[in-house]
Amino acid sequence: MQLSCTVTAGDLPITINWLKDNRHLQHDPDVESKQTSDFSMVLVFKKLREHHSGSYTCEAANAAAAVNHTATLRVKVSPKWVVEPGGGTALVGSTVVLDCSARGYPTPVLTWMK
């Protein structure tokens, strides 16, 4: 998977940088930025993971001005138990609470069956 940033016009030299969630990208062995020309740069995700979700901003600047554009990346993640439901016992007429919680993206739908 890759994100591309291409500048359509401007005087050289142009500096292109990537930010994630308004911060400069932290070192990640699964993500590599590559300058493909004087006017473009790509962000290559070698192995996409949940923590890669976020807002990615491409900043391009030269001596005259700076511009940027932001796009959101949402990585789909299969459901995982946060609290796996367990059994319970109770007397007739009393209340029983069974906890159940899962996370993922999109947010999992929990359904109880008897």
From TrEMBL:
Keywords: Immunoglobulin domain. GO terms for cellular component: axon; plasma membrane. Pfam families: Ig_3 (PF13927). The keyword Phosphoprotein does not apply. GO terms for biological process: axon guidance; dendrite self-avoidance; homophilic cell adhesion via plasma membrane adhesion molecules. Residues 1-74, 79-114 form the Ig-like domain. SUPFAM superfamilies: Immunoglobulin. It comes from the Eukaryota. GO terms for molecular function: cell-cell adhesion mediator activity. The keyword Disulfide bond does not apply. This is Ig-like domain-containing protein.
